[in-house]
Amino acid sequence: MACPEPLAAQAGAEILRAGGNAVDTAIATAFAQGVVSPMMTGLSGGASFLIHEAETAETWFLFAGGHAPRKARPDMWSGRVARRQGATWTLADHANRLGYQAQLVPGFARGMEDAYRRFGSGELAWADLLSPAIRYAEEGFAVYPALWDLWRPGGRISTVHGVADPEMYLAANEAAAEIYTPSGRPLEVGERLVQRDYGRALRMIAEGGADAFHEGEIAWRLADDFARNDGLLTYEDLRDFRPVLLPALEGSYRDLDVRSGHPPGLGVTAIELFQIMEGYDLESLGWNTPRYLDLMSRAMQLAFKDRLLFLSDPAFYPVPVAKLTSKHYAAEARALIDSGEDRRVVAEALPGPGNTTTCSVIDGAGNAVGLNTSINSGAGVVTPGLGFLHNNRMWSFNPEPGFRNSIAPGKAPLQGGGPSMLLRDGGIVMVIGSPGGSRGTTSAMQAVANVLHFGMSMQTAMEVPRIHAEDEVATIYAEPAIGEATIRGLEALGNQVVVGNYSGRLAGVRRDPDSSQLEGGSDPRGGGGLAVVD
Question: E strand or H helix at 297, and its extent?
Answer without folding.
Answer: helix 290-310
